[in-house]
Specification:
This protein is α/β, with parallel strands linked by helices. It is built from 20 helices and eleven strands. It folds into four domains: 2-137, 2-Layer Sandwich (GMP Synthetase, Chain A, domain 3); 150-318, P-loop containing nucleotide triphosphate hydrolases (Rossmann fold); 324-402; 423-529, DnaA protein, C-terminal DNA-binding domain (Chromosomal Replication Initiator Protein Dnaa, Chain: A).
C-alpha cells in the first residue's frame, strides 16, 4: 500500500501534516491520506525518441552537483525517481527517509527540476517495502500501531541522564547554570527558560541535569527530556497510527518538559502547531518548560512568530565559548574523568592547539573540541606507554605527539618553511579569480563557477592548512563535512580529467588544474612574504 504526500512549487516534506481534500488546508490531527497503488508512469506524454526522460535528466544534473557516489547511494539504492504529470515523484520506504532526502537534497533537486523540467514540483510517495498488494481496506479497519512515546524510554534511560554536579561552571555559563538549578528546584519564575549557544558548550548537559535533579527531589514526578527530532517523529507516528490522544497525554501531562535542539523545528509547520498547543497547555497549569537551541528564538529560520514569542517570554540565556583559563580547567576535568593527570605544560599545549584550530575555523572553542583532544591524548598514552602514558601522567612530549605538534614543518616550494595559509584568504582569492561574490559562495547556489570555487577552496585548504574536513566545513558554512569530502573528490577527478573552467575571458580556455596551480602559487608567495 502506498501513502502519497505532495509538495507543490518549492514546498517540501517540511509540511508534515496532511491536507484537507475539500479546502486544501492542513488539517490539525488529520490522518495521512492513503491512495491506491498505481503503476509507474511518466508525465502522460510519449517522450521523443532519443531524448532522456525528465527524471533521468534531473538525476544526471544532481550527480553533477553532489557527486555520483553520494547521489547513487540514495537514488539507486534507497529512493526511486519517476515523473508524474509535470512533477518529479520520489518513491521512498518511509517518512523518515523522505525527510532525510529533503533536508539533504531538496534544494539541489528543486534547482535541477527547474533547469530540466521548468517546474520545481516534487512529490514524495511513501511505500512500505513489505506492504501487501491487496486492495486498500478502509483506514479505520486497519489495526492501529502503538506510537512510540518518550515516556516508555524515559525509565530505561533515566540513569544515563547527566548530572548538574558534573557541569564545570565559569563566567561563560554561570547564568545558564544558576537558572537551570533554580528550575530543577521547582522555581517557575524563570520559565520558559531558553538556553542558546554554539554547539558543544553544554546545553544538552544542562537540560538532562535539570530533569535528573528534578526527579531526585520529587520521586515519581513526571519529567521528560526529549530532542525536537524525537518529538517530531513521535508526533508523525501518532498521526499515522491514530494515537494522538496518547501522544498529547504524554507531553502535556508532564510537570517538567525539557526540549533540546529547538532549531530542528525550522519549517516544520504542523509540528510547530502541535508544540504551540503543548506549550500553552503546560503553561496554563504553571508547569515547567526548558528549551535549548543553537540560536536565539528570533534567529531560528522559519519558526512561527507565535512560538518565537512564547520562547522569548521567559528567561533567554546565552552560553559563551570558554576563555583560555576556563579551557585549562575543562581540559583537566575531562582528563580526570578518563583517569589521566595532565601536567601544566601538557594542558597549555592542548589549550593553545584548540584555540589555534578555532581561529582557523572562525568559531570559538567548544567543550566538545577539548574533549576530542583529550581522547586523542588518552589513545596515544595507551598505544605509546614508553612516552610515560602507562603511569597515568601526561607530559608535554606525549601531548605533543598525540596532537601531531611534533611533526616537522613541511616546505612550500623550494627554500621556504611552510606557513599555513588562512582559509579566509583562500576563499577570498578563489572567489576573486572566478568572479564569485561572498554571498554566492556561502549560499546554496549551484552555478558551475560557484561549485568550482567551493571545490578549489577545499582542495587548497587541505594542501595549505592544517585543517580537517569538519573544520573546513565550518569555515565554509557548509551543513556537514561529507559535502566537503565530496567536493574534494570531485575537483580532484576534474583536474585529473583535464576539465575546463568554462567561464569568461581567459577562464574559458583554462583547465581547473591550471587555475588551482595559479591560486596555489599566489597563496604560497603570500605565505612566504608574511
Amino acid at each position: 500500500m502506498q501513502a502519497a504526500r505532495k509538495a507543490t512549487g518549492s514546498t517540501t516534506v517540511g509540511r508534515d501534516a496532511p491536507q484537507d481534500r475539500a479546502t486544501g488546508r492542513r488539517a490539525q490531527g488529520a490522518r495521512p491520506q492513503r491512495i491506491e497503488p498505481r503503476p509507474p508512469q511518466r508525465d502522460g506524454k510519449r517522450e521523443p525518441a532519443g531524448e532522456a526522460s525528465g527524471d533521468r535528466r534531473v538525476l544526471a544534473r544532481l550527480r553533477d552537483q553532489v557527486g555520483r557516489e553520494l547521489c547513487d547511494r540514495y537514488f539507486e539504492r534507497v529512493a526511486k525517481l519517476s515523473m508524474h504529470d509535470d512533477a518529479l515523484r520520489i518513491r521512498v520506504p518511509s517518512d523518515f527517509v523522505a525527510g532525510v532526502i529533503d533536508r539533504r537534497f531538496g534544494e539541489a533537486l528543486r534547482a535541477a527540476c527547474r533547469d530540466e523540467l521548468g517546474s520545481d514540483r516534487i512529490e514524495y510517495e511513501v511505500h512500505a517495502p513489505h506492504a501487501p498488494s491487496a486492495p486498500a481496506a478502509p483506514a479505520q479497519s486497519a489495526p492501529a500501531r502503538e506510537a512510540p512515546t518518550p515516556r516508555k524510554k524515559t525509565a530505561k534511560t533515566r540513569t544515563s541522564l547527566r548530572s548538574l554536579d558534573d557541569f564545570v561552571v565559569d563566567a561563560s555559563n554561570s547564568l545558564a547554570y544558576n537558572a537551570a538549578r533554580a528550575v530543577a528546584r521547582g522555581e517557575g519564575g524563570y520559565c520558559p527558560l531558553f538556553i542558546h549557544g554554539a554547539c558543544g558548550l553544554g546545553k544538552t548537559h544542562l537540560l538532562q541535569g535539570i530533569v535528573r535533579l528534578f526527579q531526585q527531589q520529587r520521586p515519581g514526578a513526571r519529567a521528560l527530556y526529549v530532542t525536537s527530532e524525537a518529538f517530531t517523529n513521535a508526533f508523525l507516528s501518532s498521526m499515522r497510527a491514530g494515537t494522538l490522544d496518547a501522544f498529547r497525554e504524554t507531553y502535556r501531562g508532564v510537570e517538567l518538559l525539557c526540549l533540546d535542539d529547538v532549531h530542528f523545528l525550522s519549517a516544520k509547520r504542523a509540528t510547530q502547531t502541535e508544540l504551540l498547543h503543548t506549550f500553552d497547555s503546560i503553561g496554563m497549569d504553571h508547569r515547567l518548560v526548558v528549551l535549548a537551541s543553537d540560536e536565539h528564538p528570533r534567529d531560528i529560520a522559519k519558526l512561527s512568530a507565535s512560538l518565537a514569542s512564547r520562547f522569548a517570554s521567559g528567561a533567554v540565556v546565552k552560553i559563551e565559548s570558554p576563555d583560555p583559563q576556563m579551557c585549562g580547567v575543562l581540559v583537566r576535568h575531562l582528563a580526570a574523568r578518563r583517569s589521566l593527570v595532565l601536567e601544566d605544560a601538557a594542558v597549555a599545549l592542548v589549550v593553545e592547539h584548540a584555540q589555534a584550530q578555532a581561529r582557523l575555523s572562525g568559531v570559538g572553542v567548544s567543550v566538545r573540541d577539548l574533549e576530542g583532544l583529550v581522547i586523542q591524548i588518552e589513545a596515544t598514552s595507551r598505544l605509546l606507554p614508553e612516552l610515560g602514558g602507562g603511569t597515568g601522567r601526561v607530559g608535554a612530549a606525549l601531548a605533543s605527539k598525540a596532537l601531531g605538534l611534533d611533526r616537522p614543518k613541511r616546505e612550500v616550494g623550494a627554500g621556504g618553511a611552510r606557513r599555513p595559509a588562512r582559509i579566509e584568504r583562500i576563499i577570498e582569492l578563489t572567489c576573486a579569480q572566478l568572479g564569485v561574490t561572498p554571498e554566492e559562495f556561502a549560499g546554496s547556489h549551484r552555478h558551475r563557477r560557484i561549485v568550482i570555487a567551493r571545490s578549489l577552496t577545499v582542495l587548497l585548504a587541505r594542501e595549505l592548512t592544517n585543517m580537517s574536513y569538519p573544520e573546513i566545513a565550518r569555515a565554509m558554512h557548509r551543513p556537514n563535512h561529507s559535502t566537503v569530502i565530496t567536493a574534494h573528490q570531485r575537483v580532484q577527478k576534474q583536474i585529473d580529467e583535464g576539465e575546463f573552467v568554462a567561464g569568461e575571458g581567459d577562464l574559458r580556455t583554462m583547465t581547473i588544474g591550471a587555475l588551482a596551480e595559479r591560486l596555489r602559487r599566489e597563496l604560497t608567495r603570500e605565505a612566504r612574504s608574511c
